[in-house]
Structure formats: structure tokens, C-alpha cells
Methyltransferase domain-containing protein (Alloacidobacterium dinghuense), 451 residues
Amino acid sequence: MNGVAPARAVAFEILLKVERSAGNSDELLYQPAVARLSSQDRNLATNLVMGTLRWQIALDTRITALLTRPNTQLDPVVKIALRLGAFQLLYLDRVPVYAAIGESVELAKGTANKFAAGMVNAILRKIAAQPKPGATSGIIKTADLAEAFAHPQWLVERWVKNFGLQTALRICEYDQQPAPVFVRLMTRDAEQALLQEAIELAPGNFLVNVRRVTSGDVSATTALKNGRVRIQDEGSQLIAEIAGHGMRILDACAAPGGKTAILAERNPDASIIACDVSKRRLAKMQQVLQNTSYGPGINFKLADAATLTLRPEFDLVLCDAPCSGTGTLARNPEIRHRLRPEELKRQYDRQVAILNCVMGGIKAGGRLLYSTCSLEPEENDLVVRECLNRRDDFEMIRLDQEIERIAGAGVLHAEGADTLRATTLVNGCLRTLPGVHACDGFFAALLVRPA
């Protein structure tokens, strides 16, 4: 694109694909066009994409108010050019005003509307003259909370109802910040290898062999490329650690594969079947895992977990069910723009079908860990309750004892174990909340089939 810096051009194309539902930001930011950027431009492109998506509701409110006809349906090219420019003007301090406006105008020239560039120029100049977003302290109303942190009001209302206003505030605040990057240390020299590549690290929240990246680009390191470390949210790793041990293991909804990798790591002699309904995601997962030391023990299977035909042969099943993903909005900000309230009922029905199906694969004495990265009770407690009501040969085991088990095994550090005991156990289930915990939001419940 003539007259547009590489980082802005790449960010624009990614945002356009997200707007057209042609991809998700977390995957698009790893495409070759991003990898070819310099480290500085790659960081800027990521900031532009994620920041624009996080603040999209607030950006659209400002833009719509300045349209001559507020109900006008803007061309996606114009819409993204406006959002991208407005984000830089309102939320980034080091971007010159002339660059934010001028390059957005150039981007708008990609539409057939010959008046688009002039409109983008006029609106962004008006936004540049407006005050930047103010302080968010003293919020006491749900509507104000949703507006201040650019979340759908219906979703914030649910969180206030389920968790209280202050916890909902912490979730929203967390969602608007870059998600922390966590690495799992796969070798004894992994931490030193990262330090030698100028990556700065801090301890994880819970797990002994997890580090939080405080400075540096891990994605560009040799340590990542040669398998010494793996990038994975700590909450996700915690779920897999809690799952436990077995000799015949089923990971029913396995992609992208991080939890499967931990199951294989902790159960090196086990036979593991990793299923997923997506051919593309399963192939990508297989490509990543098959060349690892534990890859040979994993059998990859394209299958819908809701329709599996299973015999009671597994002593461990992990059912990390597809969900709304409301616990991952810091990492996947576009979810808030796509999700609708009625979608939760559809998710519930599918999750019940999946969990009910995989329960049939548990042998006597076996265990099943059900998990999601959703904050919504319809996808968590209510799914578990419904499936337990349908069968009398399963019972739920409190996860308190599983926290003690992995603490005793040296998987948790002392402070992390104390935090989990004090803040994550609710009615025998585990629940992490973004902002309350510095990781994605996860739910987990352990079911067993008594011998």
C-alpha cells in the first residue's frame, strides 16, 4: 500500500479479515506477512490489531456520533480505516497525529467510494481535537462499566450478577490489557537459554515450570524453535496438570494441542488418542507434536466428540469443550463483537452432548476432567449438573484434593498453591477469573466412575 507503513498495512489487512469473519486475530497475527516484519513493526502491528479490537465499541461510538447520517452502513474498508486511526489518536501516545490520520486516509482510498478518503480525514481530525478517554474510577453502574471498558452491556450485566461489580470491573480491566505471555520450560536449561536471548522472565502465578515474559519477543527465539520452551497460557497449563494420570487417555477436543502435550509429558508410557472436529486444526496440532519426544505416543483422530462411539476403556479423559471463550477476551478480543446471548444456549446443548458422549468412554475407576475457557454458568456448572442427572454411575470429586495432589508432587510452588486454595475453588470446581488471576478464565470439574 503506497504511503502506508508496513505495520499499519498488515494491521489493516488483519482487521479487515476479522471484520469479514475470514479469520481470528490470534491466528492471523502469526501469518507470514507478520513474521516478515521487523521486531519493532511486528510489535506495533500486534498492538494496533489487538488494541483496535479491544476498544472497538468505544471507537465506533465516537465515529458514529460524527457521521452526517449515524445510521449509515460504512464500507468495511472505510470502517477499519476509521477505527485504526481513531485508536491511534485516542489510545497511543507515541504515534504522531499526522501519521495516524494521513495513513488512515490512504487506507480508505482502497474503496470505490471517491468521497471516502475525505470523510475519513474529516472525522479523524475531529476525533484528534476531542479529549482522550478519562479516568474510570468510581464506577457504580453496570452501563457505565460496559461503556468505560468497551464491553457489550449484556455480557457485563451477567458478570455483575454472577460475580459482583468489583470482580466484573477487574475482568473488564484485564480484558483491555495485552494478555501476559507465559512459557512452559521443557528442559533444564530452557530458562537460561531465554535469558541469553535477552528475554526477561518472572515466576508464573501457580506452576513451578512456568515463567511469565516481562520483556522480549519469545516468538523469535531459538529456544522456542528448538522446543526448549512452549508458549501457553498458565491457566490452560493448570487444567492439564489437574487432569492427572492414566495409561489409556482420551483428549476429546484436543486442538490446538497444548493440553495434549502436557498429558503426554506427564504420562510418557500412556496411549493417548487426541480428537478434534476441525481437520485444519488437528493437522496443525499433529505437525507440532509429532516431532516431539512424546509425539509417538499420541494417535490423532479427526472426530466430533459429540458423536464418538466409545467403549468404557479409558482411565482418563480430558474434555476441554468448545465454548464461547468469554474467559479469553484479552487474548481474543473479537469474541465480544461476535457473541450473542442466544449463542450460550447453543453452546450448552453441544457441551452436554459432548460430555454425555465421552462419559461413555470411562472405565470403572476412571476419571474425566471437564473444562472450558468460559465464564458463563450455562457452559460450566449447568452442563456438569445436567450430565450427572442423566446418569447414576458417575460422581463429582472436589478439586481441593487434586490441588493438594499436584502441590505434593512439586507441580505448584507454595504461593501458587495457597492462591489456588484461597481463590479458585467454588463448590468443588476450579474457576480462574481474568483480573482476579493473571491468566485466562477457566472452569474445571472432575467426574469419576466408581470401581
Remarks:
- The chain has four domains: 6-129, 142-175, 181-230, 234-448.
- The two ends are 65 Å apart (CA to CA).
- The mean pLDDT is 95.
